[in-house]
Structure formats: C-alpha cells, structure tokens
C-alpha cells in the first residue's frame, strides 16, 4: 500500500505543473529622505544603538563615523573622528589582497567599511570588507579589531565564498549582548558566516558557514532572461531572527539565525524603483539596513550619482513594519 501511494504521488508530480511561489508582499514606504553631510554619497552601513541614535559608515572613508539626526526634509550627518589601528592579517590570497591595495588610490577607503552594528553597551562594530575584519569602537577608549578565529576565512573559501575581488563581505549583525556575530559574503557565491564569543574568545559556530550558494535571480525591472548572481548587501538582527538585505531582487528576508534558511521575504521594489527614485544601475543600490519592531530603514549607496529626480545625496527609505510584526 505504501509503495502504491508513492507511485501515485510520483505520477501526480509528473502531470501537475510545479507550484509557483507567491511574490513577497510590498513594504509600505513612510519616508524617503536624503542624507546631508556624507561626502560622496557612499552610505554603506546603518545602525541604531541602544541610546536611540542612528549611526552610519561610508565605504570611502576610513577615518569617519557618522552620527545621523532625522529631520522633516533630510537626515543630517555629523562626522566623528575614527582612528583604527592596523588591521590583522586577513588570510586572503595575495591576488585578492593586492587588488584591494591597487583600488584604494582610485576610490579612497583602504578599509572599505561595509557594515555596522551596535551592542547594548553602546559599542559600534564596523565591518571592513578589504581586511575581512571587524573593528569594535567603544563609547570610551580606543577602537580594537576583534580577534576572529583562525581558519574561518579558509572554511568560507572551501565553500565557494570570499573568492571574488570587491565582492567579499558586505554585512554584519550582532546580538545585543555581543556574544553572536554573523557576516554576509556578498556574491559569487553569497553566504552567511556565524561566529560565537566564548570564554576562550571568538569561535566558529556550526562549522563557520551557515549558508553558501551560487544562485541567480533578476532585477525587478529586468526581463526573465536577464539573470545575475544573487547577493547579500547587509544584515540586521531583531527578536531572535536574522534579516538579510538582498539588493538585486530589492527585498529583505527573515532567516533562521542557526541555519540561515529563509523563512519569509518582503519587497521594497515599488518604493526604491518609483520613477523619480530610479538610478542607472542594473543591480540596485541598497547597501544599509536597520530593522526593529517599528519598521525598517534601508540606505542607498548612490556613489554621488543622481537619480531620475536629480538627487545626488544618499537616500534612506523608511518602511513601516508589516501588519502583525516581522515575526507574525
């Protein structure tokens, strides 16, 4: 009987068309405001600390951390001097290290800060893509690089991550107590790396790599034939879940923090790709994410380029949380 049921199910699977997943629900835009005072428009990381203040980083500036103040017509950025000590060895092959050094004089920002998070004590954590390192900036005292576990870069590369120049790490998330840390490998392949702090220092969790994939997708305005590598552009932690900003597909997704498996996604394409906010980009410009029970804030790294309305300053898109909350 069991064998007969299996045969029937197999026949049905061969006859019926595969189920088509419903498109993700669109988030409701509350505001789309420019950021005044960030040189070059390179908003690459965004976080709100325990004191309620927003902070941002630029991937073109190694010596500046920005405090943001929201206003009715624009966000105002005020720079805070940042003095990072020399970064530890990255563990990358010579060719990838050399590529980063050669690019620095052209673009600025040797450390290439691409992510930002805060702990409950007010310390800020900055992700350096070029150095594959995380800088901890305490409220008082000198910044220090985290002593990440040896071998984590090799483990990621064995899974196909961290192999493409300028497509290495693009986001980080942190639990409020600072005991768990996730890093996002950007693309080709994209993935999630998990680290945990113990009494012996930082260690790999679940073999370091939660997720590694080489999948492709498409920009919402592209044809079905125009497919590119899927990416991660930022991460955020909220209420026991990990949230990923997925730039190409213009969506953010809730993921299981222990496996990286996607649970649910929401689209921000309607707001980001409104005619007046479009840029000449095939991939998308969303690079910064902060999320809490009230909503989500997505920062666009436009590199000083103007959108269709002529706006050259970076934009922050503010969205309301979905009905029932992010975990509903």
Automatic annotation (TrEMBL):
Residues spanning the signal sequence: 1-21
SUPFAM superfamilies the UniProt entry points to: NHL repeat
InterPro entries: Phytase-like_dom
Alphabetical keyword list: Signal
Protein origin, superkingdom: Bacteria
Residue intervals of the Phytase-like domain: 41-188
Keyword Kinase included in the entry's annotation: no
Coiled coil: none
Descriptive protein name: Esterase-like activity of phytase
């Amino acid at each position: 009987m069991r064998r007969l049921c299996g045969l029937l199910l197999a026949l049905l699977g061969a006859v019926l068309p595969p189920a088509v997943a419903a498109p993700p629900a669109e988030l409701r835009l509350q505001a789309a405001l420019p950021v005044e005072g960030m040189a070059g428009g390179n908003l690459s990381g965004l976080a709100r600390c325990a004191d309620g203040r927003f902070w941002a980083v630029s991937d073109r500036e190694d010596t500046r951390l920005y405090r943001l103040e929201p206003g009715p017509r624009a966000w105002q950025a005020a720079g805070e001097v940042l003095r990072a000590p020399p970064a530890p060895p990255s563990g990358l092959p010579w060719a990838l290290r050399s590529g980063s050094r050669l690019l620095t004089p052209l673009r600025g920002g040797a450390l290439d800060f691409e992510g930002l998070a805060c702990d409950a004590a007010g310390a800020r954590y900055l992700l350096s893509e070029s150095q594959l390192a995380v800088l901890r900036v305490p409220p008082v005292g000198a910044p220090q690089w985290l002593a990440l576990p040896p071998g984590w870069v090799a483990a990621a590369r064995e899974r196909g991550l961290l192999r493409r120049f300028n497509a290495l790490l693009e986001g980080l998330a942190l639990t409020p107590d600072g005991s768990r840390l996730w890093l996002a490998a950007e693309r080709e392949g994209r993935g999630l790396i998990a680290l945990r702090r113990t009494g012996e220092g930082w260690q790999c969790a679940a073999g370091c790599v939660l997720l590694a994939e080489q999948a492709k997708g498409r920009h919402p305005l592209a044809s079905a034939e125009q497919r590119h590598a899927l990416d991660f552009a930022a991460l955020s932690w909220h209420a026991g879940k990990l949230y990923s900003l997925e730039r190409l597909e213009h969506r953010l997704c809730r993921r299981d923090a222990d496996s990286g498996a996607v649970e649910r996604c929401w689209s921000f394409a309607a707001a980001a790709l409104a005619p007046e906010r479009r840029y000449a980009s095939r991939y998308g410009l969303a690079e910064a994410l902060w999320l809490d029970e009230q909503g989500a804030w997505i920062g666009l790294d436009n590199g000083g380029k103007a959108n269709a309305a002529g706006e050259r300053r970076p934009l922050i898109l503010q969205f309301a949380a979905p009905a029932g909350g992010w975990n509903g």
